[in-house]
């Protein structure tokens, strides 16, 4: 069955720049050139929240891994962290000296990496919103930066036509890929962490192995590619292009599977949900669309739970398959594994969701403390002002 359009969200007043799903798929965040962040509810009839705070276009949005925070970056040079609830409270930090194009949480939710037109990539702690360090070897705008799944590497894409891989610990650039013929709009890690995909204004998508530093696959399109997202199984890639289409690439076969027409005008952003059963896209037409994946459900329905082998483990791998030797789809599950008793699995799930909840509560607490700190600072400033004014009045009276 082909992917199908599931939901359609209207409410932005200018081009949509970025979309992301929360962990539980109950919410979808989108950023727009209209300076607003929208949080849409996936439940029909539930109202959307419009978050106002940025003073200029919102270029990027992302949910924290627990789903209890949303980070956004803007042309106003700031990054904001929001609690995606009715109040829509946020803390703001001056992140860069130019437009912030990209925000990305590490998979443990502790760090944030941002990329900017000031040609730098910066790393921050989420809880204190404290700046840690800058990576500055790009010689033009940096459009995208992402942590590897294990958090050890950072990859960045720039208008200097390079994709750079950095070691987070040593803060060194360990490799530059220079094969793109144009600006590089977007880059991301394969779920296995062994390779990266990058999209560019040269109408291509390129997949590289970051261990061997070599090009694995090259897809030539006929329009600028603005965004891409790996399916959680690691077997597919979805792209958003200026020709208004979304394309789904089969990485195992190395070919184009589907071309989807939904947007009028450039498709600017696209992302798979954490489970891979949905993907969302945004466009210059101010629309946010949610699609049902529908393809090859047998292949990934349980991938995330039991990491069962994919349907094509019959030795007919193509280049990508053999290169990603630690990819999900190469793990053959032992028969007894899939028969692990049901209770054990349920216990694990409930434990995971309890931890999830605790993490979320922590996020909210941190955020609240941070908001309180900001208010205190404001109060202190006001108090100082009052005292100074009193001094002035007294001085004027005495003089």
TrEMBL record:
Placement of WD repeats on the sequence: 9-50, 51-82, 93-134, 135-176, 177-218, 225-259, 260-292
One GO-annotated biological process of the protein: multicellular organismal-level homeostasis
Record bears the keyword Repeat: yes
Protein's UniProt keywords contain Nucleus: no
Matches recorded under Gene3D superfamilies: YVTN repeat-like/Quinoprotein amine dehydrogenase
CDD domains reported for this sequence: WD40
Gene Ontology CC entries for this record: centriole; ciliary basal body
Entry keywords, A to Z: Coiled coil, Repeat, WD repeat
InterPro entries, per database record: WD40/YVTN_repeat-like_dom_sf, WD40_PAC1, WD40_repeat_CS, WD40_repeat_dom_sf, WD40_rpt, WDR55/POC1
Feature: compositional bias, Basic and acidic residues: 334-348
Residue ranges, annotated region (Disordered): 331-350
Protein family (similarity comment): Belongs to the WD repeat POC1 family.
Job description of the protein: May play an important role in centriole assembly and/or stability and ciliogenesis.
Protein name: POC1 centriolar protein homolog A
Lineage, top ranks: Eukaryota, Metazoa, Chordata, Craniata, Vertebrata
